[in-house]
Amino acid sequence: MDKEERKIINQGQEDEMEIYGYNLSRWKLAIVSLGVICSGGFLLLLLYWMPEWRVKATCVRAAIKDCEVVLLRTTDEFKMWFCAKIRVLSLETYPVSSPKSMSNKLSNGHAVCLIENPTEENRHRISKYSQTESQQIRYFTHHSVKYFWNDTIHNFDFLKGLDEGVSCTSIYEKHSAGLTKGMHAYRKLLYGVNEIAVKVPSVFKLLIKEVLNPFYIFQLFSVILWSTDEYYYYALAIVVMSIVSIVSSLYSIRKQYVMLHDMVATHSTVRVSVCRVNEEIEEIFSTDLVPGDVMVIPLNGTIMPCDAVLINGTCIVNESMLTGESVPVTKTNLPNPSVDVKGIGDELYNPETHKRHTLFCGTTVIQTRFYTGELVKAIVVRTGFSTSKGQLVRSILYPKPTDFKLYRDAYLFLLCLVAVAGIGFIYTIINSILNEVQVGVIIIESLDIITITVPPALPAAMTAGIVYAQRRLKKIGIFCISPQRINICGQLNLVCFDKTGTLTEDGLDLWGIQRVENARFLSPEENVCNEMLVKSQFVACMATCHSLTKIEGVLSGDPLDLKMFEAIGWILEEATEEETALHNRIMPTVVRPPKQLLPESTPAGNQEMELFELPAIYEIGIVRQFPFSSALQRMSVVARVLGDRKMDAYMKGAPEAIAGLCKPETVPVDFQNVLEDFTKQGFRVIALAHRKLESKLTWHKVQNISRDAIENNMDFMGLIIMQNKLKQETPAVLEDLHKANIRTVMVTGDSMLTAVSVARDCGMILPQDKVIIAEALPPKDGKVAKINWHYADSLTQCSHPSAIDPEAIPVKLVHDSLEDLQMTRYHFAMNGKSFSVILEHFQDLVPKLMLHGTVFARMAPDQKTQLIEALQNVDYFVGMCGDGANDCGALKRAHGGISLSELEASVASPFTSKTPSISCVPNLIREGRAALITSFCVFKFMALYSIIQYFSVTLLYSILSNLGDFQFLFIDLAIILVVVFTMSLNPAWKELVAQRPPSGLISGALLFSVLSQIIICIGFQSLGFFWVKQQPWYEVWHPKSDACNTTGGGFWNSSHVDNETELDEHNIQNYENTTVFFISSFQYLIVAIAFSKGKPFRQPCYKNYFFVFSVIFLYIFILFIMLYPVASVDQVLQIVCVPYQWRVTMLIIVLVNAFVSITVEESVDRWGKCCLPWALGCRKKTPKAKYMYLAQELLVDPEWPPKPQTTTEAKALVKENGSCQIITIT
Question: Among 409, 752, 815, 876, which residue carries the largest CB count within 10 Å?
Answer without folding.
Answer: 876
